[in-house]
Amino acid sequence: MTQISEGVVAAIQRKLQGQAKDENYLRTLIHAGALDVLVDGLNEATPDARSRISRFAEDSFKGNFVLTTQPTSWEPPRSTRVYVLQPLLPKQVEDFLEQQWKLVEPGATVGVRAYNKAVKDFVATLKSETEGEDKTSRDLPIEALSILCNPMEAALAAERLARGENPDVFRLVEQCFQGAATVFRQRHNREFRKEQFAERVYEWRLSGEPNLNVEGFEEESSVLVDHKLLLCLTETLKNQKETKDVTKWMFRHDKIMNFFMVPAFLDPHADRRMKHVGDEPFGGVYDLLAIELPLAKAEELQRFLVDWSATTNENELLNRFTRRLNQRNGRK
């Protein structure tokens, strides 16, 4: 989600040029309903940012807003029509995966028949595991089939199946990266510079810039684009003096971005785990830290979050972190 801590209008302004970027003009467009506003991933924003979004939507009640969020304690604006998406049935997940064939075919190592069979076997296995009486420590309260209701995760699973691999529903991004890292090693005869790349991503998030600067990481970025973890887009910008092409780099999804940022929060950068608690650009990293940190350090961070939550009266981050830590420990 685009950083929105400064407000809805400021977030939109960063994406516009010319007259449309004028604040008063932009507010008029929104209030008149001439500009539709979509705010995605509210659960990843801070409670304060969500409150500002609600107030703005209420003040601009004639505007057209679509606000989306995963389950959270956030209260929607007054007079909001709320739609709750229901989990897909196993057959619907299977149908979605089968429909991905045309998109994954260019990188496939199996044929369409083998792919469709792999999809059926994969969904059948997940259904059996989630319906079985014996649960293992790897089972999540959110069942594996529910995870695949997210189009991004389902698409990543489809890509793994098309490559003849068995998707790990709980580590799909990591699994995709391992495939990219293997190709990188074969292509460049060296390891992917994961820690250094994490520092670049961390610095980028600190800067507030909309697009990642990949200078010095051109080879890494090229492989990530090939594996659809990173997107490379070229836009043609025109003004009175010239026309030029501008290349922009961005992650396919915030979950992928968070995965690549995790090493920037591991030792020797332990101070960042405390420094950025409550900072919107880094909220999603903490979900992964609950899994990736050594257990003793994860529990130490949890204790810090308990104190922070008691001081700020904001408990959503603590709740998410605790749920992930419990899942890691096999507790429900």
Please characterize this protein's 3D structure.
- With 332 residues, this protein is mostly helical.
- The chain folds into four domains: 60 residues, no CATH class; 78 residues, no CATH class; 63 residues, no CATH class; 64 residues, no CATH class.
- 52% of the residues lie in helices and 8% in strands.
- The chain has a two-stranded parallel sheet with strand order 1-2.
- Spatially, the strands of the biggest sheet line up as 1-2
Number of helical stretches of at least 4 residues: 16
Element string (H = helix, E = strand): HHEHEHHHHHHHHEEHHHHH
Beta-strand percent range: 5-15%
What percent of residues adopt helix (DSSP H or I)?
Answer: 40-55%
The major pleated sheet works out as:
2 strands, parallel
Spatial separation of the terminal alpha carbons: 29 Å
Radius of gyration: 21 Å
Q: Ranges with pLDDT <50 over ≥5 residues?
A: 133-142
Compute the number of strand runs.
4
Global structural class: mainly alpha
The overall average pLDDT, rounded, is: 85
The rough form would be described as globular
State the domain count.
4
Question: Which labels suit this protein?
Answer:
332 residues; mainly alpha; two-stranded parallel sheet; two-stranded antiparallel ribbon; 16 helices
Present the secondary structure layout:
Layout: H1 8-13, H2 23-31, E1 36-39, H3 47-59, E2 64-67, H4 90-99, H5 101-104, H6 112-131, H7 144-147, H8 151-162, H9 172-188, H10 194-207, H11 218-226, E3 230-238, E4 243-251, H12 254-261, H13 271-275, H14 285-292, H15 295-312, H16 316-329
Parallel strand pairs: 1-2
Antiparallel strand pairs: 3-4
Helix pairs in contact: 4-6, 4-8, 8-9, 9-11, 14-15, 14-16, 15-16
